[in-house]
Design a protein that fits this description.
GO biological process, one term: glycogen catabolic process
GO molecular function: glycogen phosphorylase activity; pyridoxal phosphate binding
CATH topology of the largest domain: Rossmann fold
Number of helices: 34
CATH superfamily of the largest domain: Glycogen Phosphorylase B
EC number: 2.4.1.1
Catalytic activity: [(1->4)-alpha-D-glucosyl](n) + phosphate = [(1->4)-alpha-D-glucosyl](n-1) + alpha-D-glucose 1-phosphate
Bound molecules: N-(acetylcarbamoyl)-beta-D-glucopyranosylamine
Number of domains: 3
Strand content: 15-25%
Radius of gyration: 27 Å
Helix content: 40-55%
Largest sheet: 10 strands, mixed
CATH architecture of the largest domain: 3-Layer(aba) Sandwich
Structural class: alpha/beta
InterPro entries: Glycg_phsphrylas (IPR011833), Glyco_trans_35 (IPR000811), Pyridoxal_P_attach_site (IPR035090)
Length: about 800
């Protein structure tokens, strides 16, 4: 069915005003006089929820009636950020809400500032999941997002004395108006225990898992509102609870503490998000988290399927289950266990169902991110699943590997799902590939590397299973909602359909040479820079000029993302200015935002170094304000919404071959920033779209990186060959930036010299710093810059997450749109 525009009745601002007042009074027990901003915010949410819930019910009805095939997006992370402004836009009542609040004496932005970020994710992977569910709803595809209802999302970052301090995040401390608890769909999940082999009634041997413990999964639904769409899907997040809230026997016997211990152990499962980004968290609790949400979600999917089906022959026609990275891979043996042990299917039939239902997205090539779980841990926590995994592996090695490479034991050892060694491990990525009908990478270049470097033998076995789906971002949040001025300008220039058809921005590229258009475009950029400058002053006490070039590097802190390469460049600029106060450069501000995993020492040292360098540079009158450095604390979606529109230069400087895609690169380009970046991830495709002359590429490409490593990379060669590079590295050993405490920044230098510089900062340094001279020159020609910026913004329609979703639908999911009744 083709999607048509929503014909939902338009609400006037007067009606919206009435709704807000009604909810203030009848939902929140206050009134216009007494209400604080929290109450105003919640009443605004409840007002729009009236429209949202109606559509939610209609969507669910249509999906049930049509028995539609649906995608189930299993992800340990959904980095949603705030929902209010987005939801108001998507229901198309933003202007009415703003008017209504204004008439009630309230400013919509201040009211919406009350909303805590829903930070149930670390970085790119979690934010991608959030963009995808937005697009799925917008495109009217039946879809459910499944994840964990963490009590604490990603930690809040304070900066004290330049160092990162982690504080707990409590996003729902005072209640959250978006979520709906669904007690009717609670699930019970077994853990631990042992497996018994019994004779079934049919005389066949059967396996029975006697759980040692059970925990309860309580579903919370967050409505996911499609833009201008009738569809409202749900994000279903599972909260863990003790199966029996209270053990009365233990309690009555005087063991109150024990019964409380059981309760708190069960609740621990959904207590916190692991703050690791791209590193494996080898913890029992983490495996339980993974199993808990997969098991709850599968029960939910099967329960829904069974409403209309009496056997499993149509399961994979009705349900596709997307594994967002390896984190939910345990869903594969779990479905096998359910089908074989509980539903009585034979292994081959069950395997067919599994294999036709699962698909897997890989987000990284970093070896330390590829999950492996100890066999011992599995034996303890999921004793039946390890048996299932052994059987999957045995059949895979005997039926598939042996057939392709007869008698080749080395190949069997290499491809085995079980890694042999001192401690035996389950390779979750292999299990995911073997158990799925498709495996995809997240950008063209990355998908090639997935085939060539990560899973070459699997690619040889099943070339048809490997596909690419380049990432995208939702233009509703990353342009419409966060950059109202530019959005309005595009409305005027190309019409108002661009949030659904981002390619239409291309129409504005024709005006890239038009002086009036350029001026208007740059005036908007300046306005966003003024807003950011105010925020910087408020948060960091640093004054920056909106006329300076804003260079922004925002993403998780990781050596491969090379924030420390940017730091070397900043040090070089500072040094040039000190040596020659007339050094020819335009005023520049470097802005960082980044969280480091709490246990990642070097990443935290880099944050400290940036702050220490900032202290010195920002207060050095000799350089006359030509250079400023800012580290913005607590980078998160809400801060990102202020940063992307204000960037002139987007730093995307990972070592080629390491950043799977990147999505910040897309958000910057869309908002008219120019990229300085390596030939890595989606930068490669951005270059194709905007043209080589509108992007600043530097550094070694992926093949050159590999070649250099193969021939034996020696960072000392680069250190000695470039006096400026040597000088800035040596600077880090002195106490210039940390008075009285020499050596405080030495770990950074050491990582790039004694540590072998694994991400080739020194090898790429010269190319980077030279390319920056070109960036600076281009910026000083404002007409030229405006043209380039416009072309960037107008040319990145491809990176709309709606396009990504259509690619998934075509290449993997094969869904039909379902239009709910209006
Ligand atoms: C990230 C990749 O590093 C990034 O390049 C990509 O754009 C993003 O996924 C979305 O595909 N990976 C992660 O965030 N990985 C983890 C484990 O957090």
């Amino acid at each position: 069915m083709a999607a048509k525009k929503s014909k939902a009745k338009a609400v006037t601002s007067a009606q919206f005003q009435e709704l807000i007042v009604k909810h203030l009074r009848s939902t929140y027990g206050t009134d216009e006089k007494k209400a604080n901003d929290q109450a105003w915010w919640k009443a605004t949410c409840s007002a729009v929820n009236e429209m949202i819930f109606e559509r939610l019910t209609e969507t669910q009805k249509s999906n049930a009636v049509n028995d539609s095939r649906a995608v189930h997006y299993l992800s340990l992370e959904f980095l949603m950020g705030r929902l209010t402004i987005n939801n108001l836009h998507n229901v198309k009542v933003f202007d009415q809400a703003r008017e209504a609040l204004k008439a009630l004496g309230k400013d919509i932005n201040e009211i919406c500032d009350e909303e805590p970020d829903m930070a149930l994710g670390n970085g790119g992977l979690g934010r991608l999941a959030a963009c995808f569910i937005d697009s799925l709803a917008t495109l009217n595809y039946p879809a459910v997002g499944y994840g964990i209802h963490y009590e604490h999302g990603l930690f809040r970052q304070d900066i004290q004395g330049g160092r990162q301090i982690e504080r707990p995040d409590s996003w729902r401390e005072y209640g959250n108006p978006w979520e709906i608890c669904r007690p009717e769909s609670v699930q019970e999940i077994p853990l631990y225990g042992y497996v018994e082999t019994v004779f079934g009634e049919d005389g066949q041997l059967r396996k029975v898992w006697h759980a040692g413990r059970k925990i309860k999964g309580v579903p919370w639904d967050i409505p996911v509102v499609g833009y201008e769409a009738q569809t409202v899907n749900v994000l279903r997040l599972w909260e863990s609870k003790a199966a029996d809230f209270f053990d009365w026997d233990v309690f009555n016997a005087g063991g109150y503490i024990d019964s409380q211990a059981e309760k708190s152990q069960a609740e621990a499962v959904s207590k916190v998000l692991y703050p690791n980004d791209e590193t494996e968290a080898g913890k029992e609790l983490r495996l339980i988290q993974q199993y808990f949400f997969c098991a709850c979600s599968l029960k939910d999917i099967i329960r829904r399927y069974k409403r209309n089906h009496s056997d499993f022959s149509n399961f994979s026609k009705q349900a596709v289950i997307q594994l967002n990275d390896t984190h939910p891979t345990v869903a594969i043996p779990e479905l096998m266990r359910i089908l074989v042990d509980e539903e009585g299917l034979n292994w081959d039939d069950a395997w067919k169902v599994c294999n036709e239902s699962f698909a897997y997205t890989n987000h990284t090539l970093l070896p330390e991110a590829l999950e492996k779980w100890g066999v011992h841990l599995f034996e303890k926590v999921l004793p039946r699943h390890i048996e299932v995994i052994y059987e999957i592996n045995r059949r895979f090695l005997e039926d598939v590997v042996e057939k392709k490479w007869p008698g080749n034991d080395e190949m069997k050892r290499r491809l085995s799902i079980i890694e042999e060694g001192e401690s035996r491990m389950v390779r979750m990525a292999y299990l995911a590939v073997v158990g799925s009908f498709k495996t995809n990478g997240v950008a063209a270049m990355h998908s090639e590397l997935v085939k060539e470097d990560l899973f070459p033998e699997f690619y040889e076995l099943w070339p048809e299973r490997f596909v690419n789906v380049t990432n995208g971002v939702t233009p509703r949040r990353w342009l419409l909602a966060c950059n109202e001025q530019l959005a309005k300008m595009y409305d005027k220039t190309v019409g108002t359909d661009w949030p659904l058809h981002l390619d239409q921005l291309k129409g504005a590229a024709k005006l890239a040479d038009n002086t009036k258009f350029q001026k208007e475009f740059m005036a908007i950029k300046r306005e966003k820079k003024v807003e950011l400058a105010d925020e910087i002053e408020k948060l960091c006490g640093i004054k920056v000029s909106p006329d300076a070039m804003f260079n922004i590097l925002i993403k998780r802190l990781h050596e491969y993302k090379r924030q420390h390469l940017a730091l070397l460049h900043i040090l070089a600029l500072y040094r040039r200015l000190l040596e020659n106060p007339d050094y020819d450069m335009g005023p520049q501000v470097f802005i960082f935002g980044s969280k480091a995993a709490p246990g990642y020492k070097l990443a935290k040292d880099i944050i400290y170094a940036i702050n220490k360098v900032a202290d010195k540079v920002n207060n050095d009158e000799r350089i006359k304000g030509k250079l400023k450095v800012v580290f913005m604390p607590n980078y998160r979606v809400t801060l990102a919404e202020k940063l992307f529109p204000a960037g002139d230069v987007s730093l995307q400087i990972s070592t080629a071959g390491f950043e799977a895609s990147g999505t910040g690169n897309m958000k910057f380009a869309l908002n008219g920033a120019l990229t300085i970046g390596t030939m890595d991830g989606a930068n490669v495709e951005i270059r194709e779209e905007v043209g080589d002359e509108n992007i600043f590429i530097f550094g070694k490409n992926c093949d050159e990186v590999k070649a250099l490593k193969a021939e034996g990379y020696n960072p000392w060669d680069y250190y000695y060959a470039n006096p400026e590079l040597k000088a800035v590295l040596d600077w880090l050993d002195t106490d210039f930036f940390t008075p009285g405490k020499p050596g405080e920044l030495s770990s950074i230098k050491n990582s790039m010299l004694d540590g072998g510089d694994p991400y080739l900062c020194l090898a790429d340094y010269e190319s980077f710093t030279n390319q920056y001279v070109n960036v600076d020159a281009a910026y000083r020609d404002q007409a030229k810059w405006a043209k380039m910026a416009i072309i960037n913004s107008a040319s990145v329609g491809k990176f709309n997450s709606d396009r990504s979703i259509e690619d998934y639908v075509e290449r993997i999911w094969k869904l039909e749109k379902v239009l709910p009744k209006q």
